[in-house]
Amino acid sequence: MTHLRIITAIFFLTVMNIHADELPAQERNSSSYTRFGYNDRDHTFAETSLRVGIVYGLTWAMYPLVLPSEFRDEGSSRVWRDNFGRVVWDKDSPFWNWFIHPISGSQLYLFYRANGYTQWSSVGLTFISQALWEFTVEIYTEPTSFEDNYVTTVWGSALGFGLERLSMYLLNYGTRTTRVLGHFINPSTLFWFYEGRVHFQPQVDFRQGRELYAGKLVISF
Amino acid sequence: MLKYIVLVLLSALQFGPSFAEERISARSELALKIGPTVGVSHVKARNNTENTHPAAGFMTQLSYQWGRFEFSASSYMLIAGINNLDFKTREFEFNDSSGRYRNIAITPTLKYFPKFASGSVYHFYIGAGPQLSHRTMTLRRSEIEGGDLRLDQHKVNYEARGLLVQLGVEQLRTESRKNPMYVEVALVHSQTRNARLIESENFRKTEILDKRQAVGELKYFKLLFTVGYTLF
């Protein structure tokens, strides 16, 4: 009886060690482990429309909150009509063109990646979302900017790709600090819609007085 | 020296394998590329003032590769210096001006990968396209005539158009090499079309004080060298 218990324990320890070999040192003594990654999958048109629609709605909601004075002082339905269809080079400072727009684009890219879209689908949807912003929302105060369309989509996706790689490395490294940093640079991984989280929960069930010992590995997504 | 360059080029090509030919002819794929760019910027302005300065920045390309052709929307973001230049906008004359300018340029480019210059790993290409750019002068020193302007609050912005030609070599993209590298040399010639005087006291908001035509007021010639790789 004792031998059987020892053999069963060794079996499960071995199984857990095979898994633990892939884990960082900090996680090896832990009973559970969360792995972060991306699962590309197909989406229906309705799913995609819903996500693009949510992002579009958020841009309308956030605009007056982020830039209240510009929205209040310079925006109007007449300005919106005058700016509709106008595309210009804007003269914004590097703070906006070289910093805010690429970061916005990268977070759009990471949002779609978190929802299970492939890299190229995420680039395409980033372009659609930012074009909706540029051509129908931002024109409430200023005309559409030629370079913003490029910078937000292309620089944003390139930056998003880098942040994706870095955040996955940090999240899977295993320490609390790296995990916080990983979530900080890729906040979409914190939300319910993020599809790449896999939770491993090894369970060993020793029931006294019975000869059958059950063990299982719970994987939740 | 020339002998070694020829030998390197020939060894890079590794003539012959049919795999590369099939791979290039059959490809139909998107690519997002990025790489740092360094180069030399030559500016010619009023009163025959001109100077040459190093330029640095990065380049991105969103490309569609179709057989031996590739269409890409490329962008250069560059910062370069200026020294002792004279230029003018509205009634203001900026003489003996020094500082730097930042430049963002977008170039729709068509590339061609000639069959005779394709090897098993590397293939050479040539490309060309029109370039649209705008550049903002941030001056450290200038003798301004015609009014009271403050260098820390006012900037001059130019829109320019020009032509880019490029020559490069790129690794063949395969299943095992998903992030091929490329090396590219580009020549750009452009000249200004419009000039704007802008007020930038508040970084959140720029105010355009004046806009006028400035055809050929500044002429640029740039030689740019980029080493980059395909992200996906």
Sum up the structure in keywords:
heterodimer; A: 221 residues; mainly alpha; 3-stranded antiparallel sheet; 8 helices; 5 strands; B: 232 residues; mainly beta; 8-stranded antiparallel barrel; elongated
Oligomer: heterodimer
Portion in strands of chain B: over 45%
The biggest beta sheet of chain B reads:
8 strands, antiparallel, barrel
Structural class of chain A: mainly alpha
E-strand count of chain B = 9
Helix content of chain B: under 10%
Explain this structure to me?
The complex is a heterodimer of chains A (221) and B (232). Chain A is mostly helical and 221 residues long. Helices cover 60% and strands 11% of the residues of chain A. Chain A is built from eight helices and five strands. Chain A is elongated and about 75 Å long. Chain B contains two helices and nine strands; from the N terminus they run ααβββββββββ. Chain B has an eight-stranded antiparallel β-barrel. In chain B, strand 7 and strand 8 form a beta hairpin. Chain B starts with a helix and ends with a strand. At the A-B interface, helix 5, helix 6 and helix 7 of A face strand 1, strand 3, strand 4, strand 5 and strand 7 of B.
Can you summarize this structure?
The complex is a heterodimer of chains A (221) and B (232). Chain A is mainly α. Helices cover 60% and strands 11% of the residues of chain A.
Secondary structure elements and their pairing?
The complex is a heterodimer of chains A (221) and B (232).
Chain A (H helix, E strand, L loop, with lengths): L1 H19 L12 E4 L8 H22 L1 H7 L2 H7 L3 E2 L5 H21 L4 H19 L6 E2 H28 L2 H10 L11 E9 L8 E7 L1
Parallel strand pairs in A: 2-3
Antiparallel strand pairs in A: 1-4, 4-5
Chain B lengths: L1 H12 L4 H9 L1 E17 L5 E17 L2 E21 L2 E21 L9 E24 L8 E18 L9 E22 L2 E9 L5 E12 L2
Antiparallel strand pairs in B: 1-2, 1-9, 2-3, 3-4, 4-5, 5-6, 6-7, 7-8, 7-9
